Amino acid sequence: MIRAKLGDVAAWCGAAIPEPNRENEEIRGVSTDTRTLKPGELFVPIEGERHDGHDFVADAARAGAAAALWRRDRPVPEGGAGLPLLLVDDPLEALQKLAERYRSMLKAKVVAVTGSNGKTTTKDLIASVLARRLLVHKTAGNLNNHIGLPLTILRADPDAEALVVEMGMSGRGEISRLTRLAGPDVAVITNIGEAHLMQLGSRRNIARAKLEIAEGLEPGGALVVPENEPLIREELAASPPPAGVRVFTFGEGADSDVRVHGIRAGIDGTEFRLAFGPALGPKPAGPEEGEPFRVPLPGRHNAVNAAAAAAVGRLLGLDAEDIRRGLMEASVIGMRIERTAAWNGAVLLNDAYNASPTSVRAAIRLVGELAGFKRKWLLLGDMLELGPEEAALHAAIGREAASAGVDRLYTYGRLAAHMAEEASRLMPEEGRVRHFGDKAALAAAVIGELDPADLVLVKASRGMKMEEVVQLLQAGPGRSGGEAHG
Fold it and tell me: Fewer CB within 10 A of the end CB, N or C, for the chain?
């Protein structure tokens, strides 16, 4: 984490210290939350829609904060704040300036990851691969925005050798600011999906927004992109990355610089093979040709995410055996196709963290590929923020579900009704497709039929809170009458 004297902090973020003789006092870390603030940290008061961090500066002092930023146009609390204040025009902007300066002092290679889906998973896979040879610091959870990214950088130790950061967005220009702050050596785009269609209007505009990540690359940097995405190829042809930046590809296509093939998805993980192209240097040592790689994550889409991580590993000098072991030992954040069990032992796949058409299709295909189950269930909720095409995109998921060979499709939510309506035309048998306006009723219906040998996928946008259905299925009969709220 950052350790610096107040005088240096003030100089880096354009602050004034009104109290005399405080310049040589030191901060050890940065926090925006007084509930988790540690003694010695600098408190940064963030102004949000519901809360203003300035109102909690006394709490920060009691928690042992070494100092706090303070918006200079606000009156200082009577009698002082109980700790040194650094006066700035905007605390958030000062936080970002501080992170940018600290980034310039770090010797670590920085890997930045963005994309419509799979950012956090791919970030975790990359970090696990690099950790085979390097001291790695990575984004905690999905702290990937204009606040989380600076905090991630400032929490890196000075001796870190690799920093793996995630970048999210909701509109144009946001990735541009984040990548210029992080200054990545390698930038990765996982895919271009439909998330944020409401804000951006088209997949092409989403591709343009994601490609802003290249703006932070210096000559000699690398941009790693999916081989099978024509929008990226077209946009790179129209607006090439900065001079000296190399572009590498990953995917299932024969022309990929890291090609994934021979994919076999299982409930506990996915096996595959990787072929490394000449653009990534001499063929890496071991494993032997044909020896499989593995990630402890289900789904062929995770094999493709692993190929992106392998490309980063090669770019930073790791051999194939390091990559293989790093992928095999990876762990990822919870609620991303998390395997759990119903009350009766049936397998539950909890993927209720988020949903877009791309990620839902991938999850449905995973369920279709998995063998050894008596019946397969899809419990799907609304995919949010899709804009004018939301009804058609939900109907398309209904067609996808009907073609995947599943036994039951149960849906919840206003938009998910379009899934059920479309699937019902293709799966007309009574009881195979049902729509619910209440999560407790949905869970009760599943509990009434679920066999211990069944497989159930639960997926929806985070705002639908479909993890409540998972909890009811874990609890079993007698617990599904009214604990979830529709």
Answer: C
